[in-house]
Design a protein that fits this description.
Largest sheet: 4 strands, mixed
Structural class: alpha+beta
Order of helices and strands: EEHEHEEHEEEE
CATH class of the largest domain: Alpha Beta
Strand order of the largest sheet: 4-9-8-6
Number of helices: 3
Radius of gyration: 25 Å
Distance between the termini: 76 Å
CATH architecture of the largest domain: Roll
Strand content: 25-35%
Helix content: 25-40%
């Protein structure tokens, strides 16, 4: 005899949040229910889980829209970074993701260096287009000017 449960959280080896699974009654009663990992598959819990899913999806849509607007504003910016360079335009050092994040931060946008997608550090003077990932599917393209100090 098995019990039908709704997973309230991801459970490794069993399923993801929202899945309905059949498990042994003792496993449900002694492990899943006390840890609030699952709930009995009653209409009440099914409805509650569906409402929570709808709220999460709506919040995710609002967040994605906010990030798209932020990306549009960020793409309008141009960040200037001053570095010491030789006569041939080669930098003494390199412009890293941290430098770019700091430059964008001085323009009023809070960006972490891990959000700056830079394949390799910039080692020359010039204008570069750098991607800044604000959200899973939202990327802003920022123009970075590297000029001589």
């Amino acid at each position: 005899m098995e019990s039908e449960v709704i997973l309230m959280q991801d459970v490794p080896g069993l399923g993801a949040q929202g899945d309905v699974r059949r498990v042994a009654p003792g496993y449900a009663r002694n492990y899943l229910f006390p840890r609030k990992l699952a709930a009995p598959a009653t209409p009440k819990y099914v409805k509650m889980l569906e409402e929570a899913r709808v709220r999460r999806e709506a919040e995710a849509r609002r967040e994605a829209e906010r990030m798209r607007a932020e990306a549009d504003r960020l793409s309008q910016l141009s960040c200037t970074i001053s570095m010491h360079a030789g006569e041939d335009g080669k930098l003494f050092g390199a412009v890293t993701a941290a430098d770019i994040a700091e430059g964008i931060g001085q323009l009023g946008f809070a960006v972490d260096k891990r959000q700056v997608e830079l394949a390799e550090p910039i080692k020359d003077l010039g204008v570069f287009t750098v991607d800044v990932r604000l959200h899973a599917e939202t990327v802003a393209r920022v123009k970075v000017w590297v000029v001589q100090k």
